[in-house]
Design the sequence.
């Protein structure tokens, strides 16, 4: 094909030689070379088509012509930095403001979700004059030094516990619960666990309060309240509570109703801010709402919202939205914030085009329709396959959690990897796994994902699980 | 004009309302609205043309058609993330490798110079297992939390000295020299100075070793050696020496010959790495060399090079280059490094197109020719105008330092601001000021800057300085 310059083998060899190996490939044992994409479809060097269930960045579909057109027109006209006045940045901020509660009216444009979260930390610290941050168990907020510090998903795997990183004793019991599910757990593991202040993940499927609890939102929020009290007793002060509005790496979790409002109340009482990380979940993925934090009700409004991935449909574009007061405190320090590329006319033109496509093509409506259909089909599959422990989701943010037994909810890690591998090899369907045990098959496809796509993927999962059962492949593969 | 959607006044009002005020505008008292640009020219909403002497990001010229074409073609084809195999990322890494010493053969692609420097810090920490960083006085390495910590230019203005930030007593005497030049200096100022480990800026114009020193490179390197010994005596360990290859915010400084090799030797002996920040200076700006660190001779090679601003001609694209050994240590920690947008096919296509244009249009040759002419003309101006203390530069990286008296080198801060303002208002020429006292007029124009442009700007500066002298405006404006 014209798009290919090297053979796949050559590309792979060059990649191994020239690109840091920490940058991993999908399907590392047999990576896929993709040369073309359109909508929800990827095409490899031989023209083979893959259904893409995971590219949440290419939000309105791969290579959407309206995005390319907007980018090209602006690139041909101007792409200076934001120290010059320009219409695009203010128009785009105005359009974003219209999707948010009124008080989130000040914007900072940056180049990645990581840059957005780093800036959110700076804003929170500057406004509160506090330092400590509360994060959810297994959270991931970005690849920067400051964000690895607040991402248990990463910092637990890395050496170097910082002086300001603490193990909150009150929550060791929760931690124990979690660690005990791992093989070879001993109390000594606790010593190795490098934990910042930590609240338990409000996961009603396998967390400490479950579906049968009368008010899990309140109950989980109360754990944060306890934690705050513990932190204050230690003489420390909270700058921010940081959470994804739908914890993604945590396992495609849907926060219980009432949780965020209550947490925000407790955090604010302690002088801290509520930061909603919408980097994976914003821009209508939830369908019913433009922002996933809005699922928590109209009375809830974060103090800072960070956005990224889908914002530029692949173009490096991200943003922090906050209040006049918080922005004012940041301005008052007298130090300029200059982001070289952030908010340039091309980035903003692309961002505006993404908003237009979401509206014009009713992609939120599509997310509701297709997402609901996908969830329904997966729930039907759950009746048939014992290994499906949970089906959860909202819009086109869907998780299918595999467990080797429903009682103990033992994570079906290997089965999940196996299903993902077979979907790729046999059906050319790209899904990936997530969650603390990589036991959740996740679906965050481009928002143009269709009913037929949903049906196809469920049919294929059904076939693979049926086949596994027939060949008795299920349990002996698990070794958790 | 068709490109304008709001009146300038409306744009300004929306900007003030919607964009964080820490994001400052050029010419804040009377900002410029730019709606179009081409080459080295900017056009405002009335079609008025400005000569751009400062946009080092739009390296091969604003809106270069070859860049737009490459971006459009790739946007239409594919813009998936780098977890899929793709030719562009490996081809681009290969092309970059060809510009660098052989040992810098492993690449990480990111979205901004800040992301690159943050990753460089992580790489250095991981490889050396040390934490401390040595930076040059007045350095600026980016807007992220981790980089403000290593940027005296920023952290001195901000509250919150970290536990790991130290004042190195041996260097207080240098600091005193510098502070004494400020008004109202008292010894108490020292206490307020939040300094990390700090080496004096190797500035042969106003530093501690000057043009008349027989070997300023060695002498300045020895200050770093002393500093390293001091740090080691304190029981601390050096992860990296971090410096721009031509300190920019520091005042468009040209490092003395031999400095970097010697510093690298001392830093490596202490187990640390040499990080060359080429974010402002790379991609041929120096003319004679593709990378400014190469000005230090063929025997010098950094351990890590970070690059950014000009790399994508305005597109958010940046990179870290390092050795197999350092990348290997980073891989060995077992944690994936995933940068959502970094190294995507569109970013790499743009990066490749930039490299092509630099070659095809001989922009390095142009930088030598025009830069040399500009420096010659400015030096002639220096003979005529007492206020021009120093003219320095290489290629299209040029600084004109104003002083109110040549003996004491009192910074001509207000004059520099005044000249910049008049150049904008009377001649539609954009220059800006830099350096510890904002007394340096800096020239880092798009690389297509012409002989005529150079002659025009020098002629205009001459006229403004002559006029100031005639009207005796020079000294009473200064209040340093």
Sequence:
């Amino acid at each position: 094909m014209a798009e290919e310059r090297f053979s796949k083998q050559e590309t792979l060899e060059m990649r191994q030689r020239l690109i840091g190996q920490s940058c991993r490939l999908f399907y590392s044992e047999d990576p896929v070379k993709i040369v073309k994409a359109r909508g929800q479809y990827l095409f490899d060097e031989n023209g083979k088509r893959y259904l893409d269930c995971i590219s949440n960045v290419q939000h309105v579909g791969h290579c959407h012509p309206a995005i390319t057109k907007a980018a090209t027109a602006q690139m041909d006209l101007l792409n200076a930095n934001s120290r010059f006045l320009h219409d695009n940045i203010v128009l785009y901020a105005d359009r974003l403001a219209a999707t948010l509660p009124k008080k989130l009216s000040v914007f900072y444009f940056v180049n990645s979700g990581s840059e957005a979260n780093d800036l959110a930390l700076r804003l929170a610290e500057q406004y509160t004059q506090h330092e400590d941050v509360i994060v959810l168990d297994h959270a991931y907020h970005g690849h920067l030094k400051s964000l690895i510090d607040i991402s248990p998903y990463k910092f637990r795997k890395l050496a170097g516990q910082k002086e300001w990183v603490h193990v909150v004793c009150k929550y060791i019991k929760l931690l124990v619960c979690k660690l005990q599910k791992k093989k070879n757990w001993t109390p000594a593991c606790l010593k190795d666990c490098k934990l910042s202040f930590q609240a338990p993940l409000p996961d009603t499927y396998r967390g400490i309060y479950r579906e049968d609890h009368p008010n899990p939102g309140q109950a989980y929020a109360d754990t944060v309240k306890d934690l705050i009290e513990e932190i204050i007793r230690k003489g420390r002060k909270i700058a921010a509570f940081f959470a994804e509005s739908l914890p993604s790496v945590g396992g495609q979790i849907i926060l219980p109703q009432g949780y965020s409002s209550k947490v925000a109340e407790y955090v604010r009482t302690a002088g801290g801010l509520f930061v909603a990380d919408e980097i994976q979940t914003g821009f209508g993925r939830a369908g019913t709402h433009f922002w996933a934090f809005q699922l928590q009700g109209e009375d809830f409004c974060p103090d800072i919202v960070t956005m990224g991935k889908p914002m530029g449909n692949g173009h490096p574009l991200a943003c922090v939205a906050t209040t006049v007061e918080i922005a004012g405190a940041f301005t008052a320090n007298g130090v300029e914030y200059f982001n070289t590329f952030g908010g340039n006319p091309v980035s903003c033109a692309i961002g505006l085009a993404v908003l237009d496509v979401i509206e014009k093509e009713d992609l939120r409506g599509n997310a509701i329709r297709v997402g609901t259909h996908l969830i329904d089909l997966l729930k039907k599959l759950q009746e048939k396959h014992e290994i499906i422990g949970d089906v959860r989701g909202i819009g086109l943010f869907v998780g299918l959690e595999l467990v080797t037994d429903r009682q103990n909810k033992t994570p079906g890690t290997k089965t999940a990897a196996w299903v993902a591998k077979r979907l790729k090899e046999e059906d050319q369907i790209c899904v990936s796994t997530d969650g603390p045990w990589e036991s959740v098959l996740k679906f965050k496809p481009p928002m143009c994902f269709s009913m037929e796509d949903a049906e196809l993927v469920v049919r294929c999962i059904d076939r693979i699980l049926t086949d596994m059962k027939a060949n008795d492949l299920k349990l002996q593969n698990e070794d958790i």
